[in-house]
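Notes from the 1:1 (GR / supervisor)

We went over the backlog. Supervisor wanted to see one worked example end to end before approving the batch request, so GR pasted a single chain during the call. The sequence is below; no edits were made to it. Supervisor asked that the structure be written out right there so they could see what the output format looks like.
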Amino acid sequence: MIAYDHPDAAKLIADLQQVYVDRYGDQDITPVDPEEFAAPHGHFLVGYLDGAPVACGGWRAHDTAFDSVVPGDAELKRMYVVESARGRGLARLVLAALEEAASAAGRRRLVLETGTLQPEAIALYTRAGYRRIPNFGVYRCEPNSLCFAKELRPAPVRGAEPRAVAGADGT
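Structure output shown during the call:
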């Protein structure tokens, strides 16, 4: 885990915002407070290759219902892999780590918004089991927005792993 405003995270997020400008003509309009990504109500991570930051993503908790978001959800934000590191499965690794962290924090579902001009993101999320939901928040009426959700598996309870127990007859 790394702070949302850590210099490596900030660089990747700035690169991602440029992708939004290139594809949509403007940066992401979602208001974000870096504190939202701090434990226990959020999580942000940066992936490195050869010491260089190449991937990022995070989630922030939602404990108030609005639109198609319900209490207990976590919203996925700022998923990004630099162009030179794409095609290596890093986005899948980041997504899996974020799902695991959200589940461990007691979140029941991950929700997200992506755009119609991001086919690689749409493919990633649908392959990972995300399903379309009604658009929410600032994207509720945006024609270029698509929202998705995935139910998370509950995190295993420590010490609750199944154990073999021998019967009285040794079986």
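Supervisor's comment: Strands lie at 42-49, 52-62, 73-81, 109-115, 131-133, 145-151.
Batch request approved.
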